[in-house]
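Need a sequence for this fold. Nothing fancy.
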């Protein structure tokens, strides 16, 4: 059995499904989904992520617009732009790429976004819907993780899951999504958690979303564990032309032998986050057309 959980393949499958659906929308002569991406400043990693999102939108037929702003923009100016995007009826969704400059309060920005257009799934309304019978626009990374679990038919019945990282939009959101399944026992760990190894060693599924290279070592996991690595870090590597390489939270080479299934980094959860963003955009479009 191939133990690699291939996020690139699953994201490609999802994009094809969405492309086919948008093709039908075009054939009917209806308005196609639209997305705006707000990029503040020249943060190199943000630019890379944004370009990947733009390419994915163009690939499936979503009308995408990039709004580039100077990094000295005032918070009030950004909030005014968000109000305009909220009120633009022909726009289905938008994202404000994080991180933001120090003079801007991130939570103020998130709170100002219309939940119906929040395709990142960061607003209180959308995160809160995780525990509701009516799911709204779910956090994109968490949705991507859950999609991998479902499409790879990872058995969660009577299993224990350790989530490393309790951030509101990722670790905590994934925990809430898993707990809706009821058949899995979830433990959320944070930077203050004691005896982390004792927890991870018992876990059937480990989802790590910390951003700390080699946090999870082979000594911390049991044979047959399933690993979903959400973390992403850039570390020095003289063998690479750039001088750096991208790694996850898991010591992949050493943990691989013990895992029954594992996501690579890159090529695991990252592509799924973008695929989920596109899914949310299509869902927002349908809601917009119906509403």
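Here you go.
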């Amino acid at each position: 059995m191939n133990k690699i959980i291939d996020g690139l393949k699953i994201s490609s499958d999802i994009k094809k499904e969405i492309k086919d659906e948008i093709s039908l929308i075009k054939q009917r002569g209806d308005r196609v989904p639209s997305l705006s991406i707000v990029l503040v400043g020249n943060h190199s990693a943000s630019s890379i992520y944004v370009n990947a999102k733009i390419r994915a939108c163009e690939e499936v037929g979503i009308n995408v617009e990039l709004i580039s702003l100077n990094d000295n923009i005032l918070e009030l100016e950004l909030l005014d732009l968000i109000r305009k995007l909220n009120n633009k009826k022909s726009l289905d969704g938008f994202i404000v790429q994080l991180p933001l400059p120090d003079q801007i309060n991130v939570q103020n920005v998130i709170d100002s976004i219309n939940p119906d257009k929040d395709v990142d799934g960061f607003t209180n309304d959308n995160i809160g819907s995780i525990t509701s019978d009516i799911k709204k626009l779910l956090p994109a990374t968490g949705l991507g993780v859950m999609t991998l679990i479902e499409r790879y038919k990872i058995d969660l019945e009577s299993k224990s899951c350790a989530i490393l990282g309790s951030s509101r939009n990722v670790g905590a959101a994934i925990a809430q999504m898993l707990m809706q399944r009821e058949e899995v026992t979830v433990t959320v760990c944070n930077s203050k958690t004691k005896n982390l190894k004792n927890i991870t060693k018992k876990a059937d599924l480990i989802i790590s979303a910390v951003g700390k290279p080699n946090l999870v070592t082979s000594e911390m996991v049991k044979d047959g564990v399933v690993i979903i690595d959400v973390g992403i870090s850039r570390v020095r590597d003289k063998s690479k032309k750039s001088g750096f390489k991208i790694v996850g939270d898991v010591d992949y080479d050493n943990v691989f032998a013990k895992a029954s299934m594992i996501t690579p980094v890159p090529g695991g959860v990252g592509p799924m986050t973008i695929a989920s963003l596109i899914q949310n955009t299509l869902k927002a479009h349908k809601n917009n057309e119906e509403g």
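For context: The first helix runs from residue 7 to 27.
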